[in-house]
Amino acid sequence: MFEGRDLFISTNHGKEKVIGPMMFESLGINCFTSPEINTDLFGTFSGEIERLDDPFTTAKNKCKKGMELSGFDMVLASEGSFGPHPTLLFVPADDEILVLIDNKNDLLISAREISTDTNFGAKEIYTEEELLDFALKHLFPSHAMILKSNGSGSNDVIKGITKKEDLIKGFSELQSKYRSVLIETDMRAMYNPSRMKVIGAACKKLIDKIKSCCPTCNLPGFSVSEVVQGLPCELCGAPTHSTLKYIYRCQKCNYNQIEMYPNTRQYEDPMFCNVCNP
Q1: Distance CA 205, CA 201 (A)
Q2: Would the pLDDT of 83 be above 80?
Q3: Under CATH, to which class is 6-118+191-211 assigned?
Q4: How confident is the model at residue 251 (pLDDT cuts 50, 70, 90)?
Q5: Average pLDDT over residues 2-16
Q6: For the chain, domain boundaries
Q7: Which residues contact 165 (CB under 8 A, 6 or more apart)?
Q8: In this structure, are strands 107-115 and 145-149 parallel, antiparallel, or unpaired?
Q9: Right CATH number for 122-186 from 3.30.1490, 3.40.50, 1.10.10, 3.30.70?
Q10: CA distances from 194 to 19, 55, 76, 90, 184 (A)
Q11: What are φ and ψ of residue 205, in 5° steps?
Q12: What is the mean pLDDT of residues 128-142?
């Protein structure tokens, strides 16, 4: 269904360098992109353009834009979000969503990877010492920095800084006009090797989904559609928030398959029970 076909990767941030080889080696798909695509229209990390939709919808919209531009019937796009981890609330996380739309076979297959392997951060600074301290702690110069004005109504932004002399120069220029300067990690994929790794992990999940076919109709994308909580406590038997089962569902024929105890445990430790350990 996929071998030998062409895939347009809807990005202008270099993600094809990670995604392209993986899709070709695993599925035999030929990957392309174009300098004419501008995915910044859907939002920028540095704030000049606000992202109006949720990450999944944004990735789908990027796919649609890629199809319009390229004329391909198969397009892939990704969208990243950065902030507190959903369960480790004080730990920053990179949340990546990949969406593949195949119009020829009327398929949409997506994958998600959440990782704490990120240098994401920002700080208001006043001195060159603070500037260099933040940059080095956030993996500069292998990971680029962004400097922004901190003045009301101003939009001075310097992106993609990867050299110490450029970082100091940019800081001096902005500080001469504003009381303080904002320094941020540049989260665009081509400037952030940590993010590229997470995108690669999400792509691996996407490939695994594509290779997973429905036992009934044999279409790809047969994957977990619902995670059901309720694993019983080993001591009192009350349902906990831990996973009891996965429900797999085909998006075409709606065939369902249930996998009980996907984490290989039939009972949960009482320490995670709201009854035994409220």
Answers
A1: 7
A2: yes
A3: alpha beta
A4: confident
A5: 96
A6: 6-118+191-211, 122-186, 224-272
A7: none
A8: unpaired
A9: 3.30.1490
A10: 15, 19, 21, 19, 15
A11: -65, -40
A12: 97
Worst-scoring range by mean pLDDT, 58-67, 147-156, 159-168? 147-156
What rounded mean pLDDT belongs to the chain? Answer: 94
Tokens encoding 221: 């994308």
Report whether pLDDT(152) > 80.
Answer: no
Residue type (1 letter), 94: D
